Amino acid sequence: MLLKKQVRGGVLLYALFMAGIFTLLLHVYLERVVASSRQNQAQMTSSQSRLMAEITMDLADKEAGAFSFSQGTTTYEVKDKQVIVRVASKGQIKTYRYVKKQEKK
Questions:
Q1: Is residue 63 assigned to a domain?
Q2: How much is the pTM?
């Protein structure tokens, strides 16, 4: 009878140990999934702002101006041989600098 109680306790400790390891592995996996999701979201935001800046660069025809997109707004100004484009979207402001295209005559 004494041996049966020890066996039950050993099985219970083993089950508790395995549950702890499973919980730890699940936690690591979920943290990795969340980190991957955040990285994908940041990459998407960066790509969208870069695309808006490039479209603004193509449409820029004055010394300064602004454009509005569904994802945010852009402003640009021409200084010397550079075009400075500022993209404001989702609470972030990113600045891009481009070399001014030469006008073909």
A1: yes
A2: 0.71
Domain count, the chain: 1
Using one digit for the tens of pLDDT, what is the confidence trace for 29-74?
A: 999 999 999 999 999 999 999 999 999 999 988 899 999 999 999 9
Q: Give the C-alpha distances (Å, rounded to integers) separating 40 from 7, 12, 81.
A: 49, 42, 34
- What is 47-66 written as a DSSP string? HHHHHHHHHHHHH--SSEEE
Distance CA 95, CA 63 (A): 17
Write the burial class of residue 95 (CB in 10 Å: 0-12 exposed, 13-18 middle, 19+ buried).
Answer: exposed
Give the other-Cβ count within 10 Å of 98's Cβ. Answer: 18
